[in-house]
Known about the structure:
Layout: E1 4-10, H1 18-30, E2 35-41, H2 45-50, E3 53-55, H3 61-68, H4 89-101, E4 104-111, H5 113-129, E5 134-139, H6 155-176, E6 183-188, H7 195-200, E7 213-215, H8 223-237, E8 240-245, E9 258-262, E10 268-270, H9 273-285, E11 289-292, H10 296-300, H11 307-325, E12 331-339, E13 344-351, H12 376-382, E14 394-395, E15 398-399
Parallel strand pairs: 1-2, 1-4, 4-5, 6-8, 6-11, 7-8
Antiparallel strand pairs: 2-3, 9-10, 12-13, 14-15
Helix pairs in contact: 1-3, 1-11
Amino acid sequence: MRPRNLLYAQSGGVTAVINATAAAVIAAARRSRRIGKIFGARNGILGALREELHDTSRLQSGELKALAWTPGGVFGSCRVKLKDPEQDRATYERLLQVFAAHDIGYFLYNGGNDSADTALKIARFAKQSGYPLVCVAIPKTVDNDLEGTDSCPGFGSVAKYIATSVREAALDVQAMAETSTKVFVIEVMGRHTGWIAAAAGLAGNGRDEAPHLILFPERPFAEEAFFEAVKSTVARLGHCVVVVSEGLRDGNGRFLAETGHKDAFGHAQLGGAGQVIAELVRGRLGLKVHWALPDYLQRSARHLASRTDLEQARAVGEAAVRFALAGMNGQMPGIERLSDRPYRWRIVPVPLEKVANREKKLPAAFLRRDGFGISAKARAYLAPLIEGEAYPPFRDGLPDYRSFRLPLARKKLKAWEEA
């Protein structure tokens, strides 16, 4: 069997460890005689459509190692959701033309549930068209909301960063509460699911340790109960630390901080749930409030990555190459948990039909009885995911992150006419 080329692409929001997955894919693919060239699409599926394919052959072994500790996305990413082939056949035909021009036999798409949907659509279209392609999705999302996998690479590191930040900021607030801020609000990512907000709960144990209150997307905002909880916490401790998920909704199911705009995936753009909560507390209780929005900081903090997360990011990359070589079309390497203590896990194949366009919600059993914190079950699930440190090397006092300038393969087709 002659070698065929492999195309890897990144999609959606990047993470602290997605480049570790990329490095693992490249390294594993290089070990196989059945894989020829290894390309990386520039800016996700857009790069495939535009025939902008980075040639990874220039990456030396030392650079691959450095890539694994560098945040961001080495090839660039995008937020593009493909329509169904019935609605936009030309786009899928263009993809197959690019694949054929560069003899792509393996396509690995690293992203979340929308990316799994894209991978599934391409896999089905290629099969129906008679084009020999093995399409594998690789899990990645800080939101931890993919079905079919116990945890998602990228989540463990953002969880570690948020829990650490909440613990550190809480000590600051506690020290200043007598004459300064009484309530500190931090807004974390999580459009529809509260996994990151829940991870903040690892910062403390018991109601007297921060975060004192967590507001989850899975529970409608109970305004009166929240104000009473803030008042009682401040009365008891002198201060209160609140974690808010960006996707917090009111009793009617509306986002508290919806801007009215939508992103390329058709999702409502959010921003400012923490500010809304801070202003409500200030106006209703008259307390001095400060709020913070870590935003991109939480997903790019490679300097505080979880070793567990890094290991899993590498494992799914290596497994994706194995799946591709085994002809496992339309599959995703998922993480199956075998035990909490000791923490044990393995990689298993998951059909993309069970992943695409689905969201794994935070289980009700993971919430504290009053809805403002996490349960012991949540703590048992979350704790292993932030274990271990995986520091990048430092140089002159800063992380030694690299820039990778990879050449693009020569184009063989006419330019794609974007709609």
